[in-house]
Every structure is written in structure tokens, then in C-alpha cells.
Amino acid sequence: MPPSKRLAFIDLLRGWAVIVMIETHVVNATIASEATEGFLFQVLMFLNGLVAPSFLFASGMAYAVTTRRKLTSYLSLGAPLFRQLWRLLFILLLAYALHLPKFNLGQMLGEIPERQWLVFFQSDVLHCIAVSLLFLQVVLLVVRTERRLYQVAGITALIMLFVTPLMWGVDWLEAIPAPFAAYMNGLHFSLFPLFPWSVFLLAGAIAGYLFSALRDRTASDAGREKSAVGPDRPATGQHKIAEDRGGGFPVKRFAWAGSALIVFSFALMPLGWLYPTYDYWRYSPSFVLLRLGIVVLLCSGLMLYEERRGVSARSWITLVGRESLLVYTTHLLLIYGNFGTFNFRRWSNHTFGLEEAFGWTFILLGLMFALAFFWDWVRRQDPRWTKGIQWAVLAVAAAVFIWGPGS
After folding, report:
1. Rounded CA gap, 297 and 291, in Å?
2. CB within 8 Å of 348: residues ≥ 6 apart
3. At a CB cut-off of 8 Å and minimum separation 6, what does 73 contact?
4. So where are the chain's domains?
5. 3-state SS of 198-241?
6. Which of these, 280, 28, 289, 295, lies nearest to 168 by C-alpha position?
7. Cβ(307)–Cβ(314) under 8 Å?
8. Could you read off the pLDDT tens digit of each residue along the chain, which spans 407 residues?
9. Burial class for 86, CB neighbours closer than 10 Å (0-12, 13-18, 19+)
């Protein structure tokens, strides 16, 4: 049985992604146009562009590691499967709730412009995560084995990667209903349609499966060697690491894989002429693979960090990674939500320089760290507290939506 211990490097990857995501959203919501000029800002935008691929990749890895541990329950239609399905459906419902045209039932039943409905139906990162993981969950129930699941995931990722420019050449809103068209491309408000963003999550799931298989094999080999030399002989070196962590970390293999993806991405650059529509920076296979390779290299570096130095149980970064859904939702509400007559984004009115934007980023990060620490403390108390607070928040939100004054 694989160990149940959380893998800190996945939480580190997700934690750093959330932290930089907050900076990205603050900058995008507040920065003045004149502050966007210059080489340094372009470098910042490239680094910010790695946030969503990292977040999606980490979500895929976490899914694969968890699924390996709960495979029997999932395949036997046990309670863990239904909890997982409810969790994914909740994420999807939350994703749509964050884009409601009006947070008031009466106004929702009234006249709402078509543009606002298109904004509501957009595919954001939570939509992409929920739909992609639901896809994997359904495929698992059909194919019945991990190996076949990730074979299907690999084939799907490759197809999506290379047909994405074709998908972006079609206005799907003219062919299918808006809720489905939003997942096809970004022509109508969608920032993270399945094409190509699901590729990062599927790649992360495959990486998580390969990681788990290699780790288990290393642990098994170490166990056989220890049995061969006798139970009283102490383990040393990599075998000691394998014992402590349930298997060694395949750092070099991930580093080589990331490097190969980067090289391959440059080899694909001249093939843009094959597509009738092509935008390198938005959806090209070459740029997708470049960012994926960088994320895999980053993942290997965090693996190495955890293996060599370990990660403190009190790490702020892993805490944010564990509470990423709460932090993600709350920081969006603080930046874009309406609080009476106040809205932070409209208040800033795109007048900030980089220094002011970074200052507000640190303030918001402080609030999010405090929230994550508080919720982590609540979780460690009586479980009834956690459920009580969750249901109370849902009840208040539902009451405001149904009976609130609206905007």
C-alpha cells in the first residue's frame, strides 16, 4: 500500500503558484498602462504566465497520487468516489458562482444582457480543473485500471495539444450552446478553455502516475535488498531515503523530461504554417510545451529540495498550497467583489505603478496567509467546527442571493 503522507513538493508547487497568482491578479487589476512598458515588465508577464500551468499541473499530480491510494474504493463505487465526485461538482458550481452576472435571484430572473451571460459561462481555471478531473474520473470507471487511464489521458493530451489552433479558428458560439462553446476556445471571454489548458492538468496526472510507480518500485527494491542482507543492518544513503519517504524521488528523470519538452517545443516552432490560424503566445503547441517543460523542471527542483532538505510542517508555502481553493476564491472576491459601493479594482482604476501594485500584493498576501492559518487551525479542532462553518457560510451566501438587496 503506498504511503498516505502528503508530498510536500506538490503543495510547494501549488503554494507558489497561488502566491504568484495573487500578484498577477493584483497587477492585472491595478497597473497603469504606462507601467506596462519595458523589458522588465515583459519578463514579469512571462513568469506570471507560468502560474496557471503550474497550478493545473499540480492539480493533476495530486489527483494521480490520491487516486493510486483510493483506487479500490473508486472502482468499487465506494463512499470515497462519491465524495470525490461531489468535491469536483462543488468546485464547478463555485467556479460559476464567482462569475454570476448579479448576486441576486430576482435580478438573475430579470433582463440580463447577452454579454453578461457570456461572461458568466466563461471557462476559468476552476472550470478547467473540475471538468478535466471529472473526465479522468469517468474514464477510470470505464477502463478500470490506472495504466489504461493514463494511456487515455496521454492520447487525449496529445490530440488536444495539436488540434488547439484548429479549435481556436472556429467561433463555436455559432455552432453549439454558449455553456459548451466557452470550453472550446477563448474567443468569448474564456481565459482557460480546455484547449489547450487541460493539457497541463492531464500531463500532471500522467507525471503523478509515473512518479508514484517509480517511487513504489524504488521502495520495493530497497525492501528486497534489506531482506537479503538481514533485518539488523541499518539502511544508508538512497535506501534510507526510500524507507523514510516510501520510495526515492525520480528527480533526474523529471529534470530530463522537462529539458526534453523545452527542446521539443523549439523544434515545433517552424510548424506554425500548417495551421490556418496560429498565435504562438496564446495557444500554439510549441508555447504550451515550452511552459510545460519549465513547470516539470520546477517540479524536479522542488522534489530535490524536499528530498535533500525536507519541508517544515509549519511552511507557509505548503499551507497555502493545501488551502489553495479557499485562498483562490477569497482573494478573487477581495479584488473583484463589490462591498457595498466599494470595489477594489474600480477604486484603483488602473492607476498604480509596479511599486504600489506590489505593495497591495503584500497586503493581500498577509490577509491570505492569516486566513489559511485560521482555517488550518479550525480543521485541527473538532471536525464539527469545520462542517458548521462551511454550512453557515453556504447558508449566508444562499440567503443573500435569494433575499439580498442586490446591486
Report:
1. 10
2. 29, 30, 360
3. 79, 80, 81
4. 8-403
5. HHHHHHHHHHHHHHHHHHHHHHHHHHHHHHHHCCCCCCCHHHHH
6. 280
7. no
8. 344 467 899 999 999 999 999 999 999 999 999 988 888 899 999 999 999 999 999 999 999 999 999 999 999 999 999 999 999 999 999 999 999 988 888 888 888 899 999 999 999 999 999 999 999 999 999 999 999 999 999 999 999 999 999 999 999 999 999 999 999 999 999 999 999 999 999 999 999 999 999 888 776 666 666 666 555 555 444 444 444 444 578 999 999 999 999 999 999 999 899 999 999 999 999 999 999 999 999 999 999 999 988 888 889 999 999 999 999 999 999 999 888 788 999 999 999 999 999 999 999 999 999 999 999 999 988 888 888 999 999 999 899 888 877 65
9. exposed
Residues in the chain: 407
Q: Residue type for 175, please? A: A
Q: How far apart (Å, rounded) are the C-alpha atoms in residues 170 and 181?
A: 10
Instruction: Give the per-residue SS3 of the chain.
Output: CCCCCCCHHHHHHHHHHHHHHHHHHHHHHHECHHHHCCHHHHHHHHHHCCHHHHHHHHHHHHHHHHHHHHHHHHHCCCHHHHHHHHHHHHHHHHHHHCCCCCCCHHHHCCCCCHHHHHHHHCCCHHHHHHHHHHHHHHHHHHHCCHHHHHHHHHHHHHHHHHHHHHHCCCCHHHCCCHHHHCCCCCCCCCCCCHHHHHHHHHHHHHHHHHHHHHHHHHHHHHHHHHHHHCCCCCCCHHHHHHHHHCCCCCHHHHHHHHHHHHHHHHHHHHHHHHCCCCCHHHHCHHHHHHHHHHHHHHHHHHHHHHHHHCCCCCCHHHHHHHCHHHHHHHHHHHHHCEECCEEHHHHHCCCECHHHHHHHHHHHHHHHHHHHHHHHHHHCCCHHHHHHHHHHHHHHHHHHHHHCCCC
The string over 104-139, giving b where at least 16 C-beta atoms fall within 10 Å of a residue's C-beta and e elsewhere, is beebeeeeeeeeeebbbbbbbbbbbbbbbbbbbbeb
Neighbour count for residue 361 (Cβ, 10 Å): 19
Report in angstroms the alpha-carbon separations of 229 from 224, 225, 232, 233, 248.
Answer: 9, 6, 8, 7, 20
